[in-house]
Each structure stands twice: as structure tokens, then as C-alpha cells.
Design a protein that fits this description.
This protein is α/β, with parallel strands linked by helices. It has 10 helices and 12 strands.
Length: about 325
């Protein structure tokens, strides 16, 4: 993927001067065409809201362009075919079984033979082969999110938007899904923008963005981004495009003084590059603010009142409590 800045034709999504509530003020962002891009940042910095703004769930007042055209220049049906969005567990069930759900999403111009073949291929990629005859309503959270990904990709979109899946999968499972997505991107030439709280996913991507305080504070090829210091909050930062460098050239600065960043913590994690060499990466990220514990209790009670037989509210409350305790 050419990560250069040679002109507008390189972008599938362009955001210019976006203002939305208190999250974004004069926000600018360009997403590379045919690239696997990731967005990371602190809690409540607007990552999920940004996904909803891009796909049109939230109104953005003509500040977002898709392939060089503003939203008003598209029909609603055009946008829905160009962009597919996966927000974990936000899924409208239209069919009874997994196989029927996948078949329902296939483009109409595909033959029946190709349809069945394509369904089996997508099911295999996301571990759904043994679940094709299973009821969609009976799927676990992990299985449902895998179905969401398969459903989104089986319709052959030009742009795929994905909210953070890491809270629902293990670290290894999340990395494996990211690798599959990158393979699909390279095969189908689609553009993928994924929100992630797992730093290893950034390394798998072609291009990474770090958000904070309603602005992009860092961007570039992932290795370049992970070498840089995250600026203190409320500091105006000029974001410059970084040149592509290989993983093997990265040397972490273990003697770096981070004392000036009092609101940051340093994470150290080990992984391997494509040649199996170990890398030890040091990266500053923002401490995640504690979730209001009273809100957790309210969500738990309301969920139980609405549907006492559903385990969804229990899962949400459990994850929220874990964040609170951490």
C-alpha cells in the first residue's frame, strides 16, 4: 500500500472541519484507500462516535466525503452498499440460521452455485463452518461478532468500518482476526478502518491514528507511530506524515525519560515480526478513566427490568465493573 500523500485520489474517506457535540471541533482526518487502518486512543475520545459519523448513523453536516463525494451526492442505497459497519453485538437478525443470514447478504447478481461456494468460504474464514445450520439467536457473543464480520464482507463493500472487538475476544483471537482482515483487504482491495484498544493490532495495520481530546495527535505507519511520544493532553500538536520504515529497523529507546508525562503509563509488550524476530515495543498510552460505578448499577438494573432472561446486560455490567476495578 502506498502510504504517501500524493493527492485526494488516495483517500476513501475525507473529513474536513467536523464539529460534533463536545467530541470534535474542527476535526480533520483522511483515510487511505485500499489500506487497513486502525484508530486507537483513550476511553471516551470519540472513536465509536467517529465510526457512526462516517457511516451516516449520525449527521455530520457535509463535512465527510466518501471517495471524493459528499454524502448529499449519494443515494442512501449507494452508501449502504459502499460502506458496511460492524459494531459488536449491534446486529439486526433477518434470517433464522447462520447460513440463511449469509445468503441473504450476497449480491443479487451472483449465481446460486457461486453463492453457496462464497458462503462456505466466508464461514470458514470466521470459524462458522460448523454453525451454518445453527440458529442466529443461539450464538454466543464471539460467534455473533464473527457472523457480523462475515455478513459485512460477504456483500463485498468498498469500505469496512469496525468498532473495537477486543473486549469480546482474547488477545490471540483478536490478533488472528486482524490478520484475516488484512488478508481479505489485500485480496479484495477494500478499505478497512478499525477501532482497537489492542496495540498489536496497530502493528498488523498499514496505517495508524491516535486520537485524544477530539484530535488526531499521532498518525503514520504503525512502527513510526509506536516510536513516538504521545504529547500531553491539551497540547496543540502538528501531525506530520511519517515515512514508511520496516519493523526490523525499529530500536526502542529504553532510556527515554517519560517523567514529564504524568498522566501517561508505559506499556511493554513482546511480539514477533514477519521473520520471527522478537521485538520489545515501548509505547505511551493514556490511562483509561474509571467508569462511573453508579452508571454500572443503573445499567444492570434497567437491563434486568427490560429482559430478565437475557444475559446481555450481565455481560455489559461485568465488563464495566472490570474497567472500574482496573
Amino acid at each position: 500500500v502506498n502510504m504517501g500523500r500524493e493527492g485526494m485520489n488516495n483517500y476513501c474517506i475525507e473529513i474536513l472541519g467536523l464539529n460534533y457535540l463536545n467530541l470534535f471541533k474542527n476535526f480533520n482526518l483522511n483515510i487511505q484507500k485500499n489500506a487497513f487502518s486502525t484508530i486507537s486512543g483513550s476511553n471516551n475520545c470519540g472513536k465509536t462516535t467517529l465510526i457512526r459519523l462516517i457511516d451516516g448513523q449520525l449527521y455530520s453536516r457535509n463535512t465527510i466525503s466518501i471517495f471524493g463525494k459528499e454524502y448529499d451526492e449519494y443515494k442512501i442505497t449507494d452508501i449502504s452498499s459502499i460502506i458496511k459497519t460492524v459494531i459488536p453485538l449491534e446486529f439486526t437478525i433477518t434470517q433464522k440460521t447462520v447460513e440463511e443470514e449469509l445468503l441473504y447478504q450476497i449480491p443479487l447478481d451472483m449465481s446460486k452455485v457461486n453463492c453457496n461456494k462464497f458462503v462456505k468460504e466466508c464461514a470458514k474464514i470466521f470459524g462458522l463452518t460448523k454453525l451454518l445450520t445453527k440458529s442466529v439467536e443461539s450464538l454466543s457473543e464471539k460467534e455473533l461478532i464473527n457472523l457480523q464480520l462475515a455478513v459485512a464482507l460477504i456483500s463485498k463493500p468498498q469500505i469496512l468500518l469496525i468498532d473495537d472487538i477486543y473486549p469480546y475476544f482474547t488477545k490471540e483471537e483478536t490478533i488472528n482476526i486482524c490478520k484475516k482482515l488484512k488478508e481479505i483487504k489485500e485480496k479484495e482491495n477494500i478499505s478497512i478502518l478499525m477501532v482497537t484498544s489492542l496495540l498489536e493490532c496497530n502493528l498488523i495495520s498499514d496505517y495508524s491514528y491516535i486520537l485524544d481530546n477530539g484530535q488526531v495527535v499521532l498518525e503514520g505507519p504503525p512502527i513510526d507511530v509506536l516510536q513516538k511520544e504521545v504529547p500531553p493532553k491539551n497540547t496543540q500538536t502538528k501531525v506530520e506524515h511519517q515515512s514508511q520504515e520496516t519493523v526490523s529497523n525499529f530500536t526502542p529507546d529504553k532510556n527515554r525519560d517519560d517523567s514529564q508525562y504524568n498522566d501517561l503509563k508505559t506499556l511493554e509488550f513482546s511480539l514477533k515480526d514477519d521473520k520471527g524476530r522478537n521485538l520489545c515495543l515501548y509505547h505511551n498510552i493514556w490511562k483509561q478513566p474509571n467508569i462511573d460505578f453508579e452508571c454500572v448499577i443503573v445499567v444492570f438494573i434497567l437491563g434486568y427490568i427490560v429482559n430478565p432472561n437475557s444475559g446481555m446486560y450481565i455481560s455489559f455490567a461485568y465488563q464495566a465493573i472490570l474497567y472500574y476495578l482496573s
